[in-house]
């Protein structure tokens, strides 16, 4: 892997020396320094770093104005604030200005390096979700149906989209949180849900609520197993599932997410089942 290129923004030669020593000792490449807004613009345009450490108190400006200037040049550059000032108001403002992390001076080397590793690993980890998450969820569904109903399923169609669709009768939505947020949707007809719940319970459901509960727990197990498999691939994901939300009835519309998702249609002994999965960059956990 190429060295991560870093620019230090600070008006204190002492702080710059401390940060440079920490970063270079850990193998990072410090490609420039800046202490004013104009210097920030100049060095970012010239060096195009992957990451900037940003002091908050600078002559004639502040860290937020400089951060905005950095992102006007390249919105993909990550900014980590390194400042003696740190309170709830300033941290909230940092989030609003697309700061990726906040470290308080005096700098703890381990804290700084951990923040850089987390921030710079985001793109790589998101790519893992893009390539691996849907196959893993399909594997979890196949395995879950087999283990819980002693039957097999066949995937007969698969596609990607970000469109609204109309439910077949019952939809279970599982929210996913962690380094990135996402969702899993299971949609099926009421008849298919009744048939599957009977197989899951080893008897006919006593009432509609019991059938709904069986399908909610089925979806919860599928999503939980899939998230566990993904977490084993990279512990930094830290994926967790939220309690299921269940929608049922005629003409239920499932809203389109603000991110692209993958859908598979599975043919089971109980009827067809739709599974939809997707993750978004926008909900990354901020630390």
Give an overview of the whole structure.
By secondary structure, the chain is α/β, with parallel strands linked by helices. It folds into two domains: 5-120, Response regulator (Rossmann fold, 3-Layer(aba) Sandwich), CATH 3.40.50.2300; 125-283, CheC-like (Chemotaxis protein chec, 3-Layer(aba) Sandwich), CATH 3.40.1550.10. It has eight helices and 16 strands. It has helices at 13-25, 37-47, 63-73, 88-96, 109-120, 122-149, 190-201, 208-233, and strands at residues 5-9, 29-34, 51-54, 57-58, 61-62, 78-83, 101-104, 154-161, 165-166, 170-177, 181-188, 240-241, 245-248, 253-254, 261-268, 271-280. The strands form four sheets. Strands 8, 10, 11, 12, 13, 15 and 16 form a seven-stranded antiparallel β-sheet that branches. The protein has a five-stranded parallel β-sheet with strand order 2-1-3-6-7, sandwiched between helices. Strands 4-5 form a two-stranded antiparallel sheet. β15 (261-268) and β16 form a beta hairpin. The longest helix has 28 residues, at 122-149. The mean pLDDT is 92.
For the secondary structure, the number of strands is 16
What are the low-pLDDT stretches, counting only 5+ consecutive residues below 50? none
CATH superfamily heading of the largest domain: CheC-like
The average pLDDT value, as a whole number, equals 92
Helices, by number, come to: 8
- Name of the CATH class of the largest domain: Alpha Beta
What's the number of structural domains?
2
Kindly report the CATH topology of the largest domain.
Answer: Chemotaxis protein chec
Binned strand content: 25-35%
- Helix content class: 40-55%
CATH architecture of the largest domain: 3-Layer(aba) Sandwich
Give a quick account of the main beta sheet: strands, pairing sense, barrel closure.
7 strands, antiparallel
- Compute the CA-based radius of gyration: 24 Å
Keywords: Chemotaxis, Phosphoprotein, Two-component regulatory system
InterPro entries: Bact_response_regulator (IPR050595), CheC-like_sf (IPR028976), CheX-like_dom (IPR028051), CheY-like_superfamily (IPR011006), Sig_transdc_resp-reg_receiver (IPR001789)
Organism: [Clostridium] fimetarium
Protein name: Stage 0 sporulation protein A homolog
């Amino acid at each position: 892997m190429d060295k991560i290129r870093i620019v230090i923004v600070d008006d204190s030669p002492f702080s710059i020396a401390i940060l440079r020593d920490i970063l270079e000792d850990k193998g990072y490449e410090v490609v420039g320094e800046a202490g004013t807004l104009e210097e920030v613009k100049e060095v970012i345009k010239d060096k195009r770093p992957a990451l900037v450490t940003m002091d908050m108190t600078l002559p004639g400006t502040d860290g937020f104005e400089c951060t905005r200037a950095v992102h006007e040049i390249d919105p993909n550059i990550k900014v980590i604030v390194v400042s003696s000032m740190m309170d709830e108001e300033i941290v909230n403002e940092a989030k609003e200005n697309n700061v990726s992390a906040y470290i308080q001076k005096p700098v703890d080397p381990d804290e700084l390096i951990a923040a850089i590793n987390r921030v710079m690993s985001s793109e790589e980890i998101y790519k893992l979700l893009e390539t691996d998450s849907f196959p893993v969820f399909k594997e979890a569904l196949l395995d879950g149906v087999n283990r819980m109903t002693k039957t097999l399923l066949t995937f007969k169609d698969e596609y990607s989209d970000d469109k609204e669709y109309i439910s077949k009768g019952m939809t279970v939505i599982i929210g996913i949180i962690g380094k990135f947020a996402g969702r899993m949707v299971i949609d099926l007809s009421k008849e298919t849900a009744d048939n599957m719940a009977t197989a899951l319970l080893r008897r006919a459901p006593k009432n509609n609520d019991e059938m709904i509960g069986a399908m909610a727990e089925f979806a919860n197990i599928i999503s939980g197993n899939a998230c566990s498999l993904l977490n084993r691939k990279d512990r930094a994901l830290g994926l967790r599932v939220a309690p299921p939300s269940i929608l049922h009835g005629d003409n239920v519309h499932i809203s389109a997410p603000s991110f692209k998702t993958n859908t598979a249609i599975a043919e089971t002994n109980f009827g067809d089942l739709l599974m939809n999965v997707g993750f978004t960059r926008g909900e990354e956990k901020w630390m």
